[in-house]
Specification:
Layout: H1 2-10, E1 15-19, E2 25-29, E3 32-36, H2 54-71, E4 77-84, E5 89-97, E6 100-108, H3 121-124, E7 131-132, E8 139-142, H4 143-166
Antiparallel strand pairs: 1-2, 2-3, 4-5, 5-6, 6-7, 6-8
Length: 167
């Protein structure tokens, strides 16, 4: 039910992050969307942390996105992961220009298991071998609106995470 609710609202938002019925991350930015794997998203590289489910892992990921975007200064670029596969990861890169951000989808040869969702700061501002998707397509959005969209997604994921922890 919550997934259908998010799907209905996503048409009103420029940016949305949700989980599919198969626990894949669905990221939509403007008129582009991509799907990512979540298997490694729930695993933590910190041996003291407990593994978490896809919803909680996605919640941590979106929370970290919001933190990094809130700190982004004019002219800076940030990389945000969303697909955690065996041999590569997929990313959004956002570059701030005054109150706007330009967004591009791409990928890098970094394995999904190597990146914890709640702290990927080692790659956030410098991602070796980032390759934009082809054909290259950049979209620009008002940064406060992007942050608002992501906060909405986080609120929905928080509600879903409560259910995931009970199950």
């Amino acid at each position: 039910m919550v997934g259908n609710f998010v799907a209905g609202l996503s048409s009103m938002r420029n940016v949305s992050v949700r989980l599919s019925a198969h626990n894949q991350i669905e990221v939509r930015v403007g008129n582009e969307s991509r799907t990512g794997e979540t298997y490694y998203l729930g695993l933590q590289s910190d041996h003291h942390a407990e593994p978490c489910g896809p919803v909680t892992g996605t919640l941590k990921l979106v929370t970290e996105w919001i933190r990094l975007l809130s700190e982004l200064r004019d002219g800076e670029q940030v990389f945000l992961p969303f697909d955690f596969s065996d041999e590569y990861t997929r990313w959004l890169t956002l570059t701030r220009d005054a109150r706007d951000v330009s967004v591009v989808f791409g990928w890098a040869n970094i394995e999904g298991w190597a990146i914890p969702p709640s702290d990927f700061s080692q790659y956030a501002h410098e991602l070796p071998e980032f390759v934009p998707d082809e054909p290259f397509y950049s979209q620009s959005f008002y940064l406060p609106a992007v942050l608002s969209d992501l906060r909405h997604c986080r609120a929905v994921l928080e509600a879903m995470a409560v259910h995931e922890q009970i199950s």
